[in-house]
Amino acid sequence: MANSEMRDRLHADTGLDAVVSGGKLAPTWNKVVTYLDNVSAEEKGSFDWAKERAAMQSNYEARSRFEGEQPENLDSTNQTVKLIKAALDSLKALNDPSNRLEDMPLYKQAQELFASQQAGALTGIDIEA
Q1: Domain of 53?
Q2: What value does the mean pLDDT of the chain take?
Q3: 40 with 86: CB under 8 angstroms?
Q4: Considering the domain boundaries, does residue 129 fall inside one?
Q5: pLDDT (tens digit per residue) in 82-118
Q6: Quick one: which of 13, 21, 36, 108 has the most CB atoms within 10 Å?
Q7: For residue 19, what are the CA distances in angstroms to 15, 27, 28?
Q8: Hey, which bits of 19-67 come out as E strands?
Q9: Residues in contact with 89: Cβ distance below 8 Å, sequence separation at least 6, in sequence order
């Protein structure tokens, strides 16, 4: 449910649903990436956020190139996002619709990194407080 709430808010806050067909979409995708970068730390703490952030950056870059523009560098500092984005890039390079993002080795590394970060965060909690 949190993922659908985030998506609904994102669409409402960025005007993504109001984009007219045939218009340039790259600026809108850029706006979406910026929006995702500015959500709360709590929202950024989910794997769904990292996956969405990587996908939106990938969409922005592809759309910019399609529209004849050089995309600006919107790389995230979040290591999980970086791995998912690299997995998306690898998947696109394969150009094989039978492959899935979830099967890409870099995606699996992103999941493992996220899980280890979550486990590390849990060990820092003072359960006696």
Answers
A1: 2-15+25-123
A2: 85
A3: no
A4: no
A5: 999 999 999 999 999 999 999 999 999 999 999 998 8
A6: 36
A7: 7, 10, 8
A8: none
A9: 58
